[in-house]
Design goal:
The protein has two helices and four strands, in the order E-H-E-E-E-H. The chain has helices spanning 13-27, 58-70, and strands at 2-7, 32-37, 44-49, 52-57.
C-alpha cells in the first residue's frame, strides 16, 4: 500500500520510523511511504492512499472550527 505522508516541516528519520511502525500496525499491511512537506498545513499530518485522505492537519482543524462558528 502506497501512502503519501505530508507534514508542515521536514521530519527526522526517528519521527519517520515511528510513523511507519504505527501505520503498519494499524493497517496490518506492508506499506511504502512517500514523504512530503507543505508549510500551509501549519502542523499535524495528512495521509493519502489512493482516493482516501486522512487530514489531521492544524489547517483542517482550524477550518472546521471556522465553519462551526459561522453556522
Amino acid at each position: 500500500l502506497d501512502i503519501k505522508v505530508t507534514s508542515a516541516i521536514d521530519l527526522n528519520e526517528n519521527e519517520k520510523a515511528m510513523i511507519r511502525v504505527k501505520l503498519k500496525s494499524i493497517l496490518n499491511k506492508d506499506i511504502e511511504l512517500d514523504w512530503a512537506t507543505d508549510s500551509s498545513i501549519i502542523g499535524g499530518l495528512v495521509f493519502e492512499a489512493g482516493d482516501n485522505i486522512v487530514d489531521n492537519s492544524l489547517r483542517y482543524k482550524l477550518q472546521e472550527i471556522s465553519r462551526n462558528i459561522v453556522k
